[in-house]
UniProtKB/TrEMBL annotation:
Segments passing through the bilayer: 34-52, 103-128
Keywords on record: Membrane, Transmembrane, Transmembrane helix
Superkingdom in the source lineage: Bacteria
Organism (species): Caproiciproducens faecalis
The protein's name in its UniProt record: Zinc ribbon domain-containing protein
Length: 139
């Protein structure tokens, strides 16, 4: 049980870091706030963050194909035409931060998977030992 709560703590920190890096990669000024919220409060701000992560901030229309995309994308996601936004709006670390966010998220999900698996194994082992014991008493 001690180990499970430690793992859950680690998962929260990882998800918080993932939210922080994801928000930074989108030049979200509230990146730190989201990281802390997700890290401390877990799933609920996480869901809220997932809902707003692509809706906050400025959009512009691609001059080439008319696709509406995020101002901080270096190029149009549909046709690849470079964004006609002022250079200072483009976050040069976006790709790196997005990669980090995915990495933290993946580690967190893997940790949850391992914990669930370990819990199932413990549960099955517990049931098995109980049934062996009750059989021992029975016969
Ligand atoms: Zn385009």
């Amino acid at each position: 049980m001690m180990i499970v709560s430690l793992v859950m703590l680690a998962v929260r920190v990882l998800f918080g870091l993932a939210a922080y890096h994801d928000a930074s990669s989108k030049s979200n000024p509230d990146a730190t706030m989201w990281g802390l919220l997700v890290g401390f409060l877990g799933i609920i701000p996480g869901i809220i963050y997932l809902c707003i992560r692509n809706s906050s901030g400025n959009y512009l229309l691609c001059p080439n194909c008319g696709f509406k995309h995020y101002l901080y994308d270096a190029a149009c996601p549909r046709c690849g035409a470079p964004t006609q936004a002022p250079a200072q709006n483009i976050n040069p670390l976006a790709a790196q931060q997005a990669r980090r966010a995915r990495l933290f998220l993946t580690i967190g999900i893997v940790l949850i998977g391992i914990t669930v698996l370990a819990a199932v194994v413990c549960f099955v082992g517990f049931i098995a030992s109980v049934s062996v014991r009750s059989h021992g008493i029975y016969y």
